[in-house]
Amino acid sequence: MGSSVVEEDYGRRILPIVVEDAARKSPDRVAYSFPITDDPSEGFHDITNSRYSNGVNRTAWWIEKSFGKPEANSFPTIGYIGPSMGARDLRYPMLTIAAVKVGYKMMLLSPRNSVDGHLAVTDKCGCNLWILPTQRIGHVDQVLKNRPMIVYPLPELLDLLKDEAVSTYPYNKSFAEARQDPFVVLHTSGSTGLPKPIVVPNGSLATPDAHHLLPRVEGRLSQAQYFATPHRAYSTFPNFHSAGMVWCFAFPFFFELSIVLGPAMVPVNLDLVNSMFDYGNVDGSCLAPSTLEEISKVPASLERIGKTLFTCFGGGPLSQECGNRLNAVTRVFNTVGVTEGSLFPIVQAEREDWNYIHFHPFGGYTYRQASDELFEQFQTRDPKLDLFQAFLQTFPDQDEFAIKDLYMKHPTKPGRWLYKGRADDVIVLSNGEKLNPLDMEASINDHPKVKASLVVGQGRFQTTAIIQLASGLPTSEVELNAVKESIWLNITAANVQAPAHAKLHKNNIIFASDDKPFILAGKETVLRAMTVKLYEDEINEFYAKQELSQLPEASCFDLSGIESIIHGLCDLICGILELETLGGDDDIFSAGLDSLSVLKILANIHNTIRSAVKSQNDTTLDATLVTASTIYKNPTIRKLSIALYKIVHPESQGRQDYVSENSELMQSLLLKYTDTLPARSTTTQANSKRGEISVLLTGSTGSLGSYLLDTLLSKKHIARVFCLNRSTDGEERQVKGNKIRGLQTDWTCQRVRFLHANLSKPMFGLDQDTYDLLLQQTTHIIHNQWQVDFNLTLSSFEPHIHGVRNLVDFSLATPNNASLFFISSVGIVNNQRTNASVPEVLVTDFSVTEGGYGSSKLVSELILSEAFIKSKVKCSVCRVGQISGPVEVQRGMWNKHEWLPSIIASSKYLGILPASLPSLDRIDWLPVNQLSQIILELSELDFLPSSSTTPPPYMPVFHAVNPSPTPWSTLLPTILAYLGSSVQIVPWNTWLLALQASQKGAEIAQTPGIKLLDFYEAADRMGKLGL
Length: 1027
What we know:
alpha/beta, Rossmann fold, GMP Synthetase, Chain A, domain 3, Non-ribosomal Peptide Synthetase Peptidyl Carrier Protein, Chain A, 37% helix, globular, phosphopantetheine, Non-canonical non-ribosomal peptide synthetase FUB8, PP-bd_ACP
């Protein structure tokens, strides 16, 4: 192609050739500038057309030398995740253009993707080649571990941009030949699932070049034609995103715009943006809406941007208030572009209509009504508009593309459209009313204390806002309420314009946790679906409380007899669990009841009793006698009905002897799961090769389990570990948890395998091949998995007891005679009526235990003892005391769901801290990282056994507790210093009464001790007995 551009060439130019032409025509024109250091005040590198073109050629020769010359028109994929904070490293466009010249295509992944997200795109593209910069970011190590690649380290940017000339890498394809060739692989944001690759062809990237040809509309130029006037614009758009591709890759050469970039490894922040305006010599900017929101709130920043000619934004909406402030000092342009459709052809809007988009008719857009005011945008093929229709270049087999953007018409000016979100952003309430949340969110986001917000309510009766504060959550309730009042002024203003069904109520606000920031796309916009998923528990709990507070009296039921109560509870619980039927003796927790459902049932029962008080004028009925513990202790409809009848009719029967009933059930379960144990006279000799130790570990994703896995992997003689967990996403949860705890995550799939298992099912719910593999390879079993819920009764733990018997059968079937090491609890004797120490021997007295958790562990110990004696299974038991967080490490923490962290968290909310802990006052906690090492030693996994030993006559029992106990009182000053001076120390009874009273109004997240009331009440009883 020639060096001069004629009108017919626009929209038919290939970027690699345009770059070469620019180097010949205007070698000294500055295409890019970026800071020499992280401090923009220290000056900038100016990269001319000739230097950039030379760098692209050097990069192309490097790619060919590294990966070879591919087969013609095969376009293999090369993956890359590079620095992408403030600078949008120039190696992104250089690699992309160079790859096109050599015959490859670059795949540019967002560093924000999860490992699964990266692998989904990589697998779909069949990517087996990778370029690795010095900065390893965005889970790149995990990607390379999970997918074998040919990897080459990337030279540094300034090495590629050296002044030393290299020969031009030849590329001579015409537009017709290269139009459908891939230019780059980008991907969707993954807002509704895993991201999907989008192959952007040369023809799609060339559509902004065609904007040169757009005729004026009403005397006004297109946005791109305005930018074609020589400008120097500061851009923060990421280069793995379509906005970065257009502004940073294409505009410097299609429109001779000089792009100024920030430092490579400095995240975009207000101080950096201010510095770039001060020292970057820019007369325009391209910024994310979130950045512009910050600028608009700070007068000094607003003054800086006011010295430039324009700013443009994209990737998300900008609040009207924010845009008005910016538009008063500089021109604001609302640009639109997407991965599949490049930059939209848009006419410059009148200044007062900065937020409206005037789509050029050459785009071929059509609109279909989606609701009374909203219209969905489509691009419909028109052969005369071929050069301007990027969607249909990306998808040449389609004649129409649903863009899924929603717009509202300008009230008086035709052709102007106001962006109102995505079609999948629309919230449909439970009454069928629809609303678009963007205006409300924009108004909330305009508050200086707000970083981001989401309005939710899909399928609910009303909307709720989740608000992430800019400076984190205040530590006191007073401060938080003050912030809420301040933000409410913004919400009130938005409510004025909103339809009745879309208005936000003052109590419908959830503040985001500091440790759960909103999930952002590369363009700094909130990924709605993923963030809603992140806050699913908080949303569900909020609406559950709303429903509890609005339960009608019509939901009450007849309390006159046991059968009427059974009927009423059955209807109630089936409604909550959305079940057709539920048997009177079915375990309601196994059927799906959780803590929130318990609160719903409890509120309904209280409502029923209070209604009976009113109708019968019976003041002896006390609804508060029914607690959450009542439901947990009676886990079937029949048992709960009997318990409720006795409370309502106390004269009917005496109090049932709970201990006797529990002992009978323990005996029954023990007989059930030992009666069919096979008898063996001798232990089968293990036949595993020395060094081939394979461990089956259950419950690896929990606190202790994570440290057990980490300790196992530190032992080189352990060949592999099979992790059996109840969750389907075991490995993902393990990686996430281990990162938080500072534990290793770099295992291979050959050494660690994660399996979704249900131990109570035949073959653990696994397929035959997987189960057979476990049988052949397992030499040791560590059974750590157990539901830690002190509210549940023994019958609710039967699936866990069944799992113990299945592990015994598994061990019997292994050719290696796999040993079985069971993690039990010192809590099996929490009902012991003496202060005598408990020896490391089997406990056979059922009366010493209380509660389902301890009882189930004791039954399991006795099953294993029987298996040891009768079936010669190599079993052993370790009774564990209170496990604390790790010591002598920088990261990790105590499991916040356990009884002590729950006391501390609840005390912060209640404003009081107990001075003593009846029956728990002796502090003998064991750090979790030390406990994991102890367990390996006791299970004989800490070393490579050299010879077999004679088994003992009885099953070994070990106690893992701290040998140097200390009283609770010695810890009080430290805990009090953490909670703050406003928290008072009170007697235990006062604290327990306050926690019981808080059941009605507090959230479980604030007072997690509510879920452990049964445990604390049992400790209180033991304390009163002097135990």
